[in-house]
Amino acid sequence: MKIAVELVCVSKSFQKEKALKEISHSFEAGKIHGIIGFNGSGKTVLFKCICGFLYPDSGYVKVWDERIGKDVDFPKSLGMIIENPGFRPYLSGYKNLKYLADLQKKVGKEEVVNAILRVGLDPFSPKKVRQYSLGMRERLGIAQAIMEDPDLIILDEPFNGLDKRGAAEVCQIFRELRERGKTILLAAHNMPEGICDTICEMDAGVLTQK
Length: 210
Known about the structure:
This protein starts with a strand and ends with a strand. By secondary structure, the chain is an alpha/beta fold. The model has no long low-confidence stretch (mean pLDDT 92). It has helices spanning 43-51, 93-104, 109-118, 134-146, 164-179, and strands spanning 3-14, 17-28, 32-36, 58-63, 66-67, 78-81, 152-156, 183-188, 198-203, 206-209.
């Protein structure tokens, strides 16, 4: 069994508030893993520690068997959306993603167009992101996370603003990614039924598997 993400006694505090409490858990590669919890439960802080945006006060995180903050600063082959994507409101969806792609120089126009099409948006639409609905922004965020074909995809509340049909379409994208061997971590208040291979619950900084 290949492990994509390993958490070992991970704790994180902000002043007197303990956001993560000695979390130890492993996420197997090639599966969809869901984390359910309300706002303030610690989901976003946990994801930031996995991505290298925050470092634990104690314990450690390994991604692809590399320790974050020691072996590498950030995980390799990672696509993620945590909290609200920082899109430029006066640019189109395509121009936003092309700008980000040009920074990394890993993919070009074709990959950006294909990622936008894959999430059900029109890459050639002149509509500005400020005119997007919440659901359209979520779809664009998912396109950003997958456009470089990463092995690990981390998405914080990817179903926000999506109706039942939209959520079903996004779930199908995740299933197709899993079939291609990708590992996906999802955090949500409510998880669509049947999408996850494993589900954990987060409450007051404690992670438990259901």
